[in-house]
Amino acid sequence: MEVSTRTQRLQNELATGQGVLVIGPAFARGIESIDMNIIVESLADRLSDSSGWESLGLHDRIRLLAEGLGNEGLADILTDRMPSVEALRTECRAFHRSLLSAPFSTIIDLSLHDLVTATLFEINQRYRILTSDEDFVTQPEAFSGEKNIIKLRGDLWLGDAAFTQEELRVRLEKQRALTEFVRQQLREGPILFFGFSTRDPFLRFLRDFFAPLSGTSFLATRVDNHLWRRVWNGVGIDVIDAGTSGELEQKIKNLLNTFKNDDCLPDLGELIAESGDLTTRHLVGLKTLSWAHQDRVQLDALKVEECGPVRDAVRVLGHVAGRGLSIPSKPAAFAAEICLRIGDMAGARSALALAVQSMHQQQDFGAIS
User: If 147 and its partner were Cys, which of 51, 127, 214, 273 is the partner (CB 3.0–4.6 Å)?
Assistant: First the structure.
């Protein structure tokens, strides 16, 4: 199949809402607060033995840090250094918004930070995050209009991040449902890899672990030696390259600009606010959310066995939000807090995502009371 034909298939599939975008480290280029080279370099003095540090590449340095500090210790340091989703929203560039606005149904994020999530908030894109098999229990299907966001290396803030390719392999072998879902997505394609160098070890890992990949696969990268193009072409992946990062981003924007025509749309802010107010009034009377009428003391006193309605409410709110309707943020925020207190991490993640999305999309309509 000619490259031009493959490019056309990529565009055709995206037009129907299919396609997989795989995000690598260069997606965050220019943002010092999440630049792993800068962060990792600053941690050399934490090692009891840093011999040979200067000659190591980034991934080998991370390997030494994980060995010397332990995964938990390294994760604690990184979570302290990494900015929040809210803080990262101010770092989103036009290209970030453009790339994630393209109609890829699935985004596989190989980073440890939350720039992808922050960008999705900026463009008002609904999504479900998948990091483990448990997430398929709480979110068995994506709602209409939602993207699948797969944190393949795990969640740094939940202490289950894979720092090396070996740890990622172990993680994927353990999370079988997640792995099979990713495998299916990468086989069906089409795929666009963005943010990886031609020598990135995690890119090679994906190619080998999930082989065979879709016959329509592209790697958008800067190529410093034309032989790398032949290497990737030899495994069935076409290369889209440019002389500079800016030129590469422009090439990708040109490839995807078929799907962007929002400039002429009217401002729907007032309509969204009114629909949210109407939705809230209907939710007030639902028995499923009756627990949200309680005051703070009563909510804090809820026992584990009494929290079934809270979990049900998260599913109801997710169902409503997934249909494109605005929801009140406070019940979702209360549910997140309660789920976190009783140890239901999957429920807490789902509820927190709903709360933050609601607060971003519209003004808070107040607690249900």
Answer: 127
